[in-house]
User: Fold this.
Amino acid sequence: MSAPTNPVTQDSAGFVVELEQFSGPLDLLLHLIHEDEVDITDLPIAKIADQFLAVISELGLNQAADYLEMAARLLRIKAQMLLPRRLGDDEWEDPRAELVRRLLEYQQIRELVEWLGAAAARRAEQFGRGFSPEPPAAPPAPLVIDLNDLLAAAERVIALIPEPVLHRVVPRPLDVEGATARIQALLAARDTFGWGDVVGARSTIVDVLSTFIALLELAKRGALHVHQEGPFAPIQIRRESPREAR
Amino acid sequence: MNPLAKLVEAALFASARPLTVDELLTLDPSAGATAVRAALAELRDAFATGDHGVELIEIAQGWQFLTRREYAEAIDRAQFALRPRRLSPAALETLAIIAYRQPVGRIEVDEIRGVDSGAVIEKLSERGLVEIVTRGEGLGRPLLYGTTPQFLEILGLKDLDELPRLEELSVALRPPAPAELE
Amino acid sequence: MNPLAKLVEAALFASARPLTVDELLTLDPSAGATAVRAALAELRDAFATGDHGVELIEIAQGWQFLTRREYAEAIDRAQFALRPRRLSPAALETLAIIAYRQPVGRIEVDEIRGVDSGAVIEKLSERGLVEIVTRGEGLGRPLLYGTTPQFLEILGLKDLDELPRLEELSVALRPPAPAELE
Assistant:
């Protein structure tokens, strides 16, 4: 079955419902087992594995890691069951044993869930006192700090930090020499050029700083003339001619 | 009604949650636990005659006045009070595991449920139904969770002993039993 | 008590605010205003005998059960005894930062929280939870804060090593490597 092309189709609405229908791969497996009325302890693994794969692909659950992992496990067990074994082999361990144990355990949990759900529903038939008087103001009670609260606060705080590192100063030396060489090459080729010609389109802050310092240094030495029409206007660099002899 | 019973009645009416005998003892420093228990019994009987709309019940290791069941629908319909939000199956599963295995770590819950339960545990913790109770031994000393009095409260249980025993369930499997299937 | 009075008792108990006769009428569509008023009168009388810790009071906006005045003081006192004082979220956050990064300066705390933490640190210091432990290197040699023994005592921890490690927190965190704590 192909995935729905449009996410807002009936298919996807159904998908959400189905997703909520099972609380996990074990729940889905139990559902299949009960539907087929097969014995958990003697699980017809080949049949169940095929059904499991069919259902998760149908529901689009084959995108969910937990379901995929279970699918892989089922296929592995299925393969192991096909391996020949000698009759009366005491060493043979049923490859289904671990899965069966988990299923039984999970089935027990489901039974408890029903019990808990019923208890909660029954309790919900009774209402407690709705009105709570204003808590009395004043005298300080002993201070209580709950470890959970402190941890929650730590989590909130850490969530605020994009990187937990505060100020990590990374030594990234400016490459003034390289920039100077670049400018000198340009000076040799052209009489004038712009700022953009020196730093290029994708310049880092380090490139910009290096180039700027190199420009200032060269201007000071009288190798070039830096000119800007106005604030924020493009910087024009002109070769200083005639060259000064030093 | 004896004076202590009236004071206890007032205190229980003033509280939105169950109060334990220990908490009620702070009302009157001169009263002992026996007197408080007698007052609670007197109150319970006074409201138990079926001649009241509320009753005094023992819940979450304490005592609380609650409206009688038969009035739930009318109060709900008139919207004078809200019913608690129902818990999702995933939340109930996680609660069941934590209730029976406590103190229990997240990894164990994940393993039993077959899915990541971190978000569910966090929700349950926010709702005050589970809390970190201690830390486990071993690698990383994991945080271990247990249920709170509020868990008992939303289920209407006196204490954890009122949960069904595992051997009473139709699927008989005692907690960690990896050896049993062999 | 007549059945309507019991229903009204339950509704008034469960409601967070006083209810008017009109509102109470929605409880039972078959009952009229006269019947509701009679039920209220019956209830008021039943609780007015002085044999109860609560009474039914008519106030501007309707009817409400309130605890009798003479018990107010005892209940307030008990609430003091029960109600633990808690730290505000801001204080907890600041405390968490100081606990995990100590010794740490105010500027660092400000930067992590994104707000000025001076007042909060001062409060925590007044409460004896944090204290100046040393001075930092560098510009102005800033005061560095750490937690006090009282902080451990309130949390019930033997020492700071018992604080849960950050990687155990449920949210996926990128805990600072030890070298970055400086």
